[in-house]
Amino acid sequence: IDSRADLFSLGVVAYEMLHGENPFVAGANHIIDVYVKSESFTEDPLNIEGDVNNELSVFIQTLMQKNCTYRPPTAKIALSWFSEVAEGIERGMQ
User: Fold this and answer.
1) Cβ contact 23:43 at 8 Å
2) Mean pLDDT per 10-residue run, the chain (94 residues)?
3) Residue 2: φ, ψ to 5°
4) Inter-axis angle of helices 75-92 and 55-63, to 10 degrees?
């Protein structure tokens, strides 16, 4: 386990903030349901105001990849990517 586990958690929190529900807990009646959803969940693309090119949505989906090798290798790289995405959204909202 390395920083990519934290990046996954950050992606889940961001998804929950923007989507309004935790993707693994929503609709689950038992802990087994949460486990099954964590193994089979594919996140819906988020419709985020100002995210014209879906860059933030892609960023969050990448953080939530089940296979850690598909996530940014370090938090520093993720932060750099996020900064670029945030700048693009800011430009798009002007």
Assistant:
1) yes
2) 93 92 87 86 76 90 92 96 91 74
3) -140, -160
4) 160
Report yes or no: 13 and 63 within 8 Å, Cβ to Cβ. no
Exposed, middle or buried by CB within 10 Å (0-12, 13-18, 19+), for 21?
exposed
* C-alpha distances in Å from residue 85, one per residue of 1, 57, 69, 72: 26, 10, 21, 14
Residue 2 is inside which H or E element, if any?
Answer: none
| Planar angle of CA 30, 35, 60, nearest 5 degrees | 120
**At 32, which amino acid appears?**
I
Record the pTM.
Answer: 0.84
Tokens of 60: 């969050």
Q: Which tokens go with 33?
A: 């349901």
pLDDT at 38: 83
User: Do residues 90 and 84 make contact, with C-beta atoms less than 8 angstroms apart?
Assistant: no
User: What are the φ/ψ torsions at residue 7 (nearest 5 degrees)?
Assistant: -65, -40
Token pair listed for 56: 């933030």
